[in-house]
Design brief:
The protein is α/β, with parallel strands linked by helices. It contains 8 helices and 9 strands. Helix 5 links the parallel strand 2 and strand 3. Helix 4 packs parallel to helix 8 and helix 6 packs parallel to helix 7. The chain is elongated, with a radius of gyration of 19 Å. It binds 2'-O-acetyl adenosine-5-diphosphoribose (OAD). The site of 2'-O-acetyl adenosine-5-diphosphoribose (OAD) has 22 residues, from loops.
């Protein structure tokens, strides 16, 4: 567009500094700089999610303690790491947008809780969280924060006594409906949509990018690698999310000359 800067970081930074409704979709790449492996990267510790005996309602019913223990291993791993510059930049962006009467909707596919630990509020967790457990019988939920000691057996529900399961979305399960509705609404209604650190191959999460494109939002990707969406986006910034997001929200960015 006329008057826009050539450097994608400058250009997207300008968009960010004026947009009021921003939606961000994050994936495993946003936690890579914290030391967590991505889903499809080499040596992924998440591979158990492809094993129905570890990550499905039937697997849980067959052996609740085995499934619980495997997820507890992941929770222990998450407890060892800390939010990185990408999580912090998104939390800061949320505060800045709020302060000028705008809104950041942060939608994540991650189940590691790092956005919240960095200070983001109202995070839409499409795939649930390792830091919560829930009862499949009476639907009660409990927090399993990083301070809660790791256990080898699935705890009993305080309401009905059934074993609690990790509150994550497994193989073949539907996404939490209300969370997905809110994500859809924000993708369809935003001015600027950022897809950060996701391979964008898992639906319905990746479909949010289509929604943003269809609604006419400026749609941007931040990822060291291209994705199938790259050719359709207003800008693609190649690089690690922490570095790029920190540069995008630099407080001293010179204003775009009118
Ligand atoms: P993937 O492992 O598929 O993709 C991670 C993306 O992050 C890749 O595109 C990498 O290029 C990129 N990446 C790597 N390092 C990065 C960095 N430092 N900064 C930015 N990007 C980086 O993970 P997701 O797209 O999150 O679902 O996977 C989506 C879903 O697939 C997961 O939520 C999970 C899985 O099935 C469930 O478990 C329900």
């Amino acid at each position: 567009m006329p008057g826009e800067r050539n450097d994608p970081i400058q250009r997207v930074g300008d968009w960010l500094s004026t947009a009021r409704r921003v939606a961000v979709l994050t994936g495993a790449g946003v936690s890579a700089e914290s030391g967590l492996p991505t889903f499809r990267g080499a040596g992924s510790g998440w591979a158990g999610f492809n094993d129905a005996s570890l990550a499905s309602p039937d697997g849980f019913t067959a052996n609740p303690d085995r499934v619980w223990q495997w997820h507890e291993g992941l929770r222990a791993r998450v407890a060892e790491v800390t939010p990185n510059a990408a999580h912090r930049a998104l939390a800061e962006l949320g505060r800045r947008l709020g302060a000028r009467g705008g809104r950041l909707t942060l939608i994540t596919q991650n189940i590691d809780g790092l956005h919240q630990r960095a200070g983001s509020e109202g995070v839409l967790e499409l795939h649930g969280s390792l830091l919560r457990a829930r009862c499949m019988a009476c639907r009660q939920r409990i927090a399993m924060g990083i301070d809660v000691p790791i256990t080898r057996t699935a705890p009993a529900c305080g309401g009905c006594g059934q074993p609690l399961r990790p509150d994550v979305v497994w193989f073949g399960e539907a996404l939490p409906a209300e969370t997905l509705d809110q994500a859809v609404e924000s993708a369809a209604d935003c001015e600027l949509f950022l897809s950060v650190g996701t391979s964008a191959v898992v639906y319905p999460a990746a479909g949010l990018i289509d929604l943003a494109l269809r609604s006419g939002a400026r749609t941007v990707e931040i990822n060291p690698q291209p994705t199938a969406y790259t050719p359709r986006l207003a800008a693609s910034i190649r690089g690690p999310a922490g570095d790029i997001l920190a540069r995008l929200i630099e407080p001293c960015r010179p204003p775009h000359p009118a």
